Amino acid sequence: MAWVTWRQHRAQVIAIAGLLVALAAAVLGTHLPIQAAYHRDTLSECLPPASRSGCDIIVRHFQGEFDSWATALRVLAALPALAGLFVGAPLFARELEHGTHRFAWTQGVTRRRWLLSKAALLGAATITAGVVASALVMWWRGPFDTLEGRMSPSAFDIEGLVVPAYALFAFAVGVLAGLLFRRTVPAMTATLVIFVAARLGVLKLLRPHFLPPLHRTALATDTGRQTGDWLLSDTLVDAAGRQITAGREDLAVLHAQQAGIDPHAYLVSVGWKRVISYQPADRFWTFQLVEAGLFVALAVAIVLAAIWLVRRTPT
Amino acid sequence: MNAAPLDARGLGKRFRREWGLRDCTLTIPQGAVVGLAGPNAAGKSTLLALATGLLAPTEGSISVLGSDPLREPSVLAQVGYVAQGAPLYRSFTVADTIEFARRTNARWDDELVGDVLTRVAPSTKVGSLSAGDRARLALAIALGKRPQLVLLDEPFAGLDPLAGREFLQLLMDGVAETSATVVIASHVIADIERVCDHIVLLTDGGVRLEGNVEELLESHRILMGPRRPLGEIRGVRSIVRERYSGRQLTLLVLVDGPIVDPSWTIERVGLEELLLTYMAPERLPTPKPPERVPLRWHG
Predict the structure, then answer these.
(1) I need a surface site. Which of A97, A201, B145, B157 has the fewest CB within 10 A?
(2) What is the mean pLDDT of residues B149-177?
(3) From the CA atom positions of chain A, what is the Rg in Å?
(4) pLDDT above 70: percentage of residues in chain B
(5) pLDDT tier for residue B286 given thresholds of 50, 70 and 90
(6) Strand pairing of B220-226 and B265-267?
(7) CA closest to A112 among chain B residues
(8) Looking at the predicted structure, is the pLDDT value of residue B294 above 80?
(9) Residues A120-137 pLDDT 10s
């Protein structure tokens, strides 16, 4: 089956390998000026605890120069979906669409073995591609991670273990969708929808609660500095701990200004403070493990469902 | 193995709304070359798909070489199946396709394939093969498994008569070596008439007629005579079909003894005519008077 899988899917494998090569080239080309700037400004001395004065300015300058690149890199969050769209979804859908399953599934290999071998080999290829992409991104983002941390979704989602896990999940969804929809394009569409829904669902509903978030209070006037933590919420509360709406805050500031009092001093004097809830930067690998485990478990469950289904699928 | 190559009991398959096959009970004898005849949409492809486990029966059961093709798919290693239109991977070369079959079948005979493929270059893409060559390739792969049962679904569709004849020749040469049972589904009876020794006729999803070709031809006769009220005819078990044309009456009958009434002209029946008669609907629709279309002035 290894030869069969390779012969049938080599175009996809080569395309993904090509994509990775292109990514590597882009990463290499853009990383050099960043690395140079990082060393030129000796930014490493500005890592907390900062041992230099004027670090704020240096860091801000560095970020201003390269943040657009880091933002551009965030589109890579969509990369794992490709495994589902172009490898997973056509796996069954193309055979069923062209009727070639009548040829393939009536040879001496049972459908179940056919699916198992293909899922295992292509799944392994998907994971490999995910690991390579993740490693490239982590290396590129090295300077940003040391400055900004990697706990916030913009970095978390494209680094570490979750990238291959997302890819494997997308692949599994594609396989099942292909089996259910039996047409390539609807299967691809369903794969994309389910992948995005699962990713957003986990990001918004589950990930903030993998571990109980930590809370800290800050002065009402604190603008909040970058710490590498993942900020979940940042609310203004009064002395009794009740939440203050933005409207009330504006009103209070207005009153203070009309009374000729410094608004900042006024807010502090009435005992208002900010309560910040966050996930600390040092939970990165724990969260990566949990989220990757979750998606891998989902992928395995989906492949098992496909194996169960393929025996009884009507043609 | 003594189990029948193909054995169906009360087999039925319902698609969304209608039955593709219903209450089908038949046993195909070992070593027979079976013509699976019937008009389009009679259930021929459905029966073959059920036999290869591509479909699951809605009711009843089917056993292929003694195994349930869905529960014990390993039996498919002994079944050579060519689906309608001979589906193959169009992007594969001929050599790739054969390699595919070699790798997905434990039992594989290169010699049988080589015999069949003397005409096409191995580096030709399957998608650019002629219909005849593609059918030959599909057949070669089915035979390369050294199957005990060969199932062919409309193999002559799209083949010119010469290619069809060559196809049959290859098939018969191939199975002569292995003494496999062959089932050929076709709606064109002339295509299978020359080779099959057993007939299964499907109409509207059910078995209409089944049996050995010689016995069927021996037990049916055509009677022709002047028009008359029909009563009991000595030697006739039942009347399959009656047809009037003017003063002439033509009957297809099932006989159970010599017909002695000299007013009948008795003729043997050909296979094609026999099957077509059975295929025709029970009552032919009465022709409607032509509708009167009012003339209209277009100007």
Answers:
(1) A201
(2) 88
(3) 25
(4) 92
(5) low
(6) antiparallel
(7) B73
(8) no
(9) 999 999 999 999 999 999
Beta bridge partners of B26: B8
Which residues are within 8 A (CB) of B169 and not within 5 positions of it... i.e. 6 or more apart?
Answer: none
Mean pLDDT of chain A: 87
Q: Is the pLDDT of residue B114 over 70?
A: yes
Nearest chain B residue to A98, by CA: B87
Q: Which two tokens stand for residue A213?
A: 């978030």
Contact residues on chain A for B79, CB-CB shorter than 8 A? 106
pTM given for the model: 0.86
Q: How far is CA A33 from the centre of its chain?
A: 25
Q: Which residues pair with B294 in a beta bridge?
A: none
Report the C-alpha gap between A185 and B38 in whole angstroms.
36
Per-residue pLDDT tens digits for B268-283: 998 988 998 888 866 5
Q: Quick check: A315 and B54 CB within 8 A? A: yes
Residue (of B144, B136, B68, B49) closest to B106 by Cα position: B144
Q: Which sequence spans correspond to the domains of chain B?
A: 6-204, 215-279
Helix/strand number for chain B, H first, E second: 8, 13
Contact A174, A188 (CB under 8 A): yes
Q: How far apart are CA B96 and CA A220, in angstroms?
A: 72
- Chain-chain contact of B104 with A110 (C-beta, under 8 angstroms): no
- Helix spans in chain A (H): 2-40, 55-73, 79-82, 89-98, 101-104, 111-140, 142-148, 153-156, 162-181, 184-201, 246-258, 263-269, 284-312
Q: Is A240 exposed, middle or buried (0-12, 13-18, 19+ CB in 10 A)?
A: exposed
Helices A184-201, A89-98: inter-axial angle, 10-degree rounding? 160
In this structure, are residues B8 and B26 in contact, taking their beta carbons and an 8 Å threshold?
A: yes
**Cis peptide bond upstream of A213, omega within 30:** no
Residues ≥6 apart with Cβ < 8 Å to B62:
B6, B7, B8, B9, B11, B50, B51, B68, B69
Contact B138 A98 (CB under 8 A): no
Q: Which amino acid is at A125?
A: A
Task: Fill in the DSSP letter of residue B117.
Answer: T
pLDDT of residue A181: 93
